[in-house]
TrEMBL record, chain A:
Catalytic activity of the protein: ATP-dependent breakage, passage and rejoining of double-stranded DNA
Keyword DNA-binding: yes
Assigned keywords, A-Z: DNA-binding, Isomerase, Magnesium, Metal-binding, Nucleotide-binding, Nucleus, Topoisomerase
Residues annotated as the enzyme's active site: Y179
Lineage: Eukaryota, Viridiplantae, Streptophyta, Embryophyta, Tracheophyta
All copies of domain Spo11/DNA topoisomerase VI subunit A N-terminal, residue ranges: 150-211
Record's protein name: DNA topoisomerase 6 subunit A
Record's compositionally biased regions (Low complexity): 9-19
TrEMBL record, chain B:
Cellular component per GO, a single term: DNA topoisomerase type II (double strand cut, ATP-hydrolyzing) complex
Region spans: Disordered: 1-56
Family the UniProt entry places it in: Belongs to the TOP6B family.
Catalytic activity: ATP-dependent breakage, passage and rejoining of double-stranded DNA
Keywords: ATP-binding, DNA-binding, Isomerase, Nucleotide-binding, Nucleus, Topoisomerase
Transmembrane segments: none
Cell compartments where the protein resides: Nucleus
InterPro entries: TopoVI_B, TopoVI_B_transducer
Keyword Cytoplasm among record annotations: no
Name of the protein this chain belongs to: DNA topoisomerase 6 subunit B
GO biological process: DNA topological change
Subunit structure of this chain's protein: Homodimer. Heterotetramer of two TOP6A and two TOP6B subunits.
GO MF annotation: an example: DNA binding
Length: 436, 697
């Protein structure tokens, strides 16, 4: 269709210059015409204020539901839920494990750790809690078995390293940990996996082990907080933004006059928003994890949501992975299911780019991509996921994506001009309260 | 050549020019330009001279011009094909009288000088050097000499410096005109040929004993004759045949060549000779142009693969030449005396006949009426079935009508009905597969693999022809390269060329998930053997070198047979892996002991270091342990020792358990075949009530 149009456009261009402009970019002109639909910023701000206040009011209900999840400790017997703990109690737990192992060795019985299984069959989505949790099922990791000897050794080593870190009261990165014994660990994936095992064994979060991942997420906008005592003003962070601190304990004194939190999938869109100072036009906090969110970003988002009680709007690609990323923010990843209580932020609104937007904003054909077989497979799997099924609007959007077999990135909107995203698309979306 | 040969050579010499000229005329033009050009050339000249002249070609002429159809593309391939046709004829001949084949193949290289003296041509020195292709101009020679001088200089320098002296570069390759000739001899112990039939059996293209519906190696009566045509084209020398049948007190000796224009044999000598040691079989000797260098590996591969599929045969392969270091003698020993049965001649299946075939069957039949004809000339038509079929044909037909009186319209009706009606599938009884036993033996004998599995599928049908797929898979072995080594057989003949498009290759490469059977497709030495036998192998292409991948019946049969083999192997491989794991267990466990001891000791040390008040309350045993750590009663070495002991103990227990589970050895025993001794020996007997040892001093 578009090809025909283009050809017609080319013909017209050859014919005469009078009809050239409107016909060549009829899609673009339509997109521009949307600009005129925009009401003054003040009226949009009013809508947003209404949203923010509605969100903070409904919060008591949300708080009660989260407290319900915490109070209902019955499932904790069946599911593994870890909690933040101070270093003294973590140390004493490690001490007990090591002493038990040492005694077992000295008595000639070798040693074995009881490690909760984090296999994917063990991860279940609980609709009540609206997140993925880890079923409590422990498996022995004896040293005297070829299949587990290596893992048992690595576990012992990681325990010993974590013990040392806690005792000195410092923080190290996962990479640091890996490099202390490269020969034994082999590659970082192994030490990382065992680190998660250790978290489960000790029943504490990974940050309680004082082992953090390197910084990945960035934040910019109407937010001030203290990072390890230093006051950070996120409106003065330039275009790059402030890196989200890997250990959330460092963060304190969060203050903000924003009306909402804007979650962005990608760095490129984040940069556009930051450079255009979008947060000054519409007071907001802009956050990205540059793809799949890491633990720190998820923790940080949850913290913001809990403390500031702001609505969270998400801007992701219109493809199955965009939705996947959203699902990780909302109900957790399988890998970190044991800590899902601290990592998930329920109630995120899907602002865009949604499959229905492609036609609504007449995104030109050359900016849409055909979905690969793999995409379609992932999409169909997503359609089966409970967290998608819960939201009727999402199901419709996903079905539409699978029907048209087209996907598009946030950058597809740049075809109408690089600043179309910040000047027209987002304001219009906010004005129309077009989120689901 | 033997003594009687000299006179004959003279005779050949006289005849050769005319015959060779006639035979090689199109070829001479076609050389290097392609055959198409040659034919169009002759056509063009024909139209130019006499446009109304209608020419006819004898089958021999046709094949002489299109010899690539029969696998005589170039001298190298011709040598290969000649040898293989002779070997296959020999095998068929021995099997047809149920004698275990004993076959000797000799390739003897004949240099040009020798060849010339053989045909009585005097070697001439070159007079006009510039006439030749490999002529070296003065400039070129200066260049070459300069280069050689330089080379010698560096050589001398290197020698003086005590460096390793490089080999002189190889002498210049042979020129284009330098042809190599080979005497190919194949001797078997088969049926032999009736004295009077020999000329027609070997001197007439498309005459054969293997026509009819049956599983045979050869099919068209072409092989040996093509060798003869090739010898005529390349050397002009006749073929020599010695043959004797069982209970025959003479040996037929025949020297003949072929009149290509008339497709008739041209006999030089045909006589009976003495047969002192009651030999039976045939010995065929042909002298052809060939190329050993390029096709050496193909020929040896062929022999090896043939030995795999026919372990009951004994092959002696010799290559003789003037340079001793090139000579080669390989014996493929017999490993069994179990031979597959002779394939039975079968009748046609109604769904596989065409109009022409029905007509031929009618002219050949001895049955009088239609009912009997249907019932007896086809498989899977019973009497009642035949009656129903005749009823279906319409009112013009009746059971009692004479079959020879059928009009051509009526034949078309019968043919159409055959196409549409339902018949039971033909049974595979008429087929003679190699047999799982033989395939297995063959693989073991030639490859010496670590593991082998075989599977034979039940007969299946494609277009009215039954076929059986047998498969074998071996792992490891001698002279096997890493990855897939595919051995393809059709009617028990190895297929060596055009491997890429073949159904077997494709199936093995694309449709078998090797890793799911714990086989590493890149690293392991995998031998894949698939043998397909059928009354009609659906070859693709002109040379009978591969079976297309588009026949679902065959490709799925191949796939399932291979999967069956893989399944058998998987359990063996898993067992092997377990055994290896057992061996490695101790080593693997011991490797981690120092790491564990260090990790535990580090932490214990830190715990013990803490001042007691800061330490949370531990129970008494823990306190004691920490005391021991502080007093250095317990050290890293203590942990190491304890763990080492523990590993020892666990390993011992596991070993016991393993031995109990797996028993002594559950490998099935295989019968061994001992070659019987030839000749008479003086034995020393060692008697015992149960057995006798015979010792040959």
């Amino acid at each position: 269709m578009s090809e025909k149009k283009r050809r017609a456009g080319a013909g017209a261009a050859a014919g005469g210059s009078a009809s050239k402009k409107p016909r060549v970019s009829s899609a673009a002109s339509y997109a521009e015409s949307l600009r005129s639909k925009l009401r003054p910023d003040a009226s949009i701000l009013a809508t947003l204020r209404a949203l923010a206040s509605a969100c903070s009011k409904s919060e008591p209900a949300g708080a009660s539901s989260s407290s319900k999840a915490l109070a209902e400790d019955d499932p904790a017997a069946n599911y593994i839920v870890v909690a933040d703990q101070d270093s003294a109690s973590v140390t004493s737990r490690i001490n007990r494990l090591v002493l038990a192992a040492a005694r077992s060795i000295l008595s000639g019985r070798g040693f074995s750790f009881a490690v909760p299984s984090r296999a994917s069959s063990n991860q279940v989505y609980l609709p009540d809690l609206d997140r993925i949790v880890l079923v409590r099922r422990e498996s022995a990791r004896p040293f005297a078995n070829v299949a587990t000897a290596r893992k048992a050794t690595i576990t012992a080593r990681v325990l010993s390293l974590v013990h040392a870190v806690l005792r000195r009261g410092i923080h190290v990165t996962k990479r640091d940990l890996f490099y202390t014994d490269v020969k034994l660990f082999g590659d970082q994936a192994q030490s990382d996996a065992v680190l998660d095992d250790v978290s489960c064994m000790l029943g504490c979060t990974r940050s309680s082990l004082h082992v953090v991942a390197s910084e990945k997420g960035v934040v910019v906008g109407r937010l001030t907080f203290a990072d390890d005592g230093d006051r950070i003003d996120c409106t003065r962070m330039g275009v790059g933004g402030k890196a989200i601190p890997p250990n959330i304990d460092r963060v304190s004194g969060i203050e903000s006059d924003a009306l909402f939190i804007l979650l962005v999938e990608k760095d490129a869109a984040f940069m556009r928003l930051a450079e255009d100072r979008f947060y000054n036009r519409f007071p907001c906090i802009i956050l990205t994890a540059k793809g799949q969110p890491d633990v720190a970003t998820r923790l940080f988002l949850r913290r913001l949501k809990v403390e500031l009680k702001l609505p969270v709007l998400a801007l992701v690609d219109s493809d199955p992975y965009g939705l996947k990323i959203l699902s990780v923010y909302m109900c957790g990843s399988k890998n970190m299911s044991y800590d899902s209580a601290n990592l998930t932020t329920p109630d995120i609104k899907w602002l865009g780019v949604r499959p229905s937007d492609l036609d609504k904003y007449r995104v030109p054909e050359q900016c849409r991509l055909p979905m690969t077989d793999h995409d379609i497979k992932v999409g169909k799997e997503m359609l089966e996921e409970d967290f998608v099924k819960q939201n009727e609007g999402w199901v419709k959007e996903l079905e539409m994506m699978l029907r048209t077999r087209q996907k598009a990135e946030i950058q597809a909107l740049s075809s109408f001009g690089f600043q179309y995203l910040t000047e027209v698309y987002l304001p219009l979306k906010l004005q129309q309260e077009d989120w689901i | 050549m033997d003594a009687g040969g000299d006179g004959a050579t003279g005779a050949t010499n006289r005849k050769a020019p005319s015959a060779a000229a006639a035979g090689s005329n199109p070829k001479g033009k076609g050389k290097g330009k392609g055959k198409g050009k040659a034919t169009s050339n002759s056509k063009a000249s024909a139209t130019a001279k006499e446009s109304s002249l209608l020419k006819q070609k004898s089958p021999a002429e046709f094949f002489a011009e299109n010899k690539n159809i029969a696998g005589f593309d170039n001298p190298g391939k011709s040598l290969y094909t000649t040898m293989r046709e002779l070997v296959e004829n020999a095998l068929d001949s021995a099997e047809s009288i149920s004698v275990i084949p004993d076959i000797e193949i000799t390739l003897e290289e004949i240099t040009k000088n020798k060849f010339n003296t053989m045909i009585g041509l005097v070697d001439r020195d070159r007079i006009d050097e510039e006439l030749y292709d490999d002529f070296e101009s003065i400039k070129a020679r200066e260049k070459r000499l300069a280069k050689e001088a330089r080379f010698q200089e560096t050589q001398a320098k290197n020698a003086a410096l005590g460096k390793k002296v490089k080999e002189a570069p190889a002498a210049r390759g042979k020129g284009r005109g330098e042809a190599a000739f080979f005497r190919v001899t194949c001797k078997d112990n088969g049926r032999g040929m009736p004295h009077d039939d020999i000329p027609n059996m070997l001197g007439r293209v498309l005459s054969g004993t293997k026509y009819g519906l049956r599983q045979t190696r050869g099919k068209f009566g072409l092989g040996a004759k093509m060798a003869l045509i090739w010898s005529k084209m390349s050397t002009g020398l006749p073929i020599e045949i010695k043959s004797s049948m069982k209970e025959q007190n003479f040996i037929s000796f025949c020297r003949l060549d072929i009149d290509i224009h008339k497709n008739v044999p041209h006999i030089h000598l045909h006589e009976k000779r003495e047969n002192k040691d009651h030999w039976h079989g045939a010995e065929i000797q042909v002298i052809i142009e060939g190329n050993w260098t390029t096709h050496r590996s193909k020929i040896l591969h062929y022999m090896r693969q043939m030995a795999v599929i026919t372990p009951y045969a004994q092959f002696l392969f010799k290559f003789l030449s003037d340079s001793v270091d090139k000579n080669l003698t390989i014996q493929f020993a017999r490993r069994t005396d179990v031979m597959p049965p002779i394939p039975l001649q079968t009748k046609h299946h109604p769904s596989a006949v065409d109009l022409l075939l029905i007509k031929r069957l009618i002219t050949e039949t001895t049955k009088q009426n239609l009912l009997q004809f249907l019932q007896h000339e086809f498989v899977n038509i019973s009497k009642s079935h035949a009656e129903r079929l005749i009823g279906e044909m319409g009112p013009d037909f009746s059971a009692k009508m004479t079959v020879k009186s059928l009009t051509s319209q009526q034949l078309v009706r019968i043919h159409q009905l055959f196409r549409q009606a339902k018949f039971d599938d033909p049974s595979g009884n008429c087929l003679s597969p190699a047999g799982e036993y033989n395939l297995r033996l063959g693989i073991i004998k030639e490859l010496h693999p670590d593991l082998v599995a075989t599977h034979a599928s039940s007969p299946q049908v494609f277009e009215g022809h039954p076929f059986i797929v047998e498969a074998g898979i071996s792992i490891g072995g001698k002279d096997v390269k890493h990855g897939l080594n595919i051995f393809r057989y059709a009617n028990r003949i190895p297929l060596l060329f055009e491997q890429g498009a073949d159904v077997i290759t494709r199936t093995a490469l694309k449709r078998i998930n090797w890793s799911s059977y714990k086989i590493n497709q890149q690293q392991d030495k995998i031998g894949v053997f698939v043998s397909i036998v059928s009354t009609k192998i659906p070859f693709k292409g002109t040379g009978k070198e591969y079976i297309g991948d588009d026949i679902t019946e065959i490709s799925s049969a191949v796939q399932s047979a291979l999967k069956q083999c893989c399944l058998q192997l998987k359990s063996k491989i898993v067992k092997k892996l377990q055994a290896r794991e057992r061996q490695d267990r101790k080593r693997n466990l011991n490797r981690y002991i120092p790491d564990v001891a260090r990790a535990i000791m580090d932490t214990l040390g830190e715990i013990a270091d803490e001042t007691p008040p800061k330490r949370p309350r531990y129970d008494k045993e823990d306190e004691e342990l920490l005391e021991k750590v502080n007093s250095q009663e317990v050290t890293e070495m203590t942990f190491r020792d304890c763990l080492t002991q523990h590993v020892e103990q666990v390993d011992y227990e596991m070993a016991l358990e393993y031995a109990m589970q797996s028993g002594v050895s559950d490998e099935p025993r295989e019968a061994i075949y001992l070659n019987s001794l030839e000749g008479s020996y003086k034995f020393i007997d060692f008697q015992s009530p149960l057995f006798v040892f015979r010792f040959v001093p």
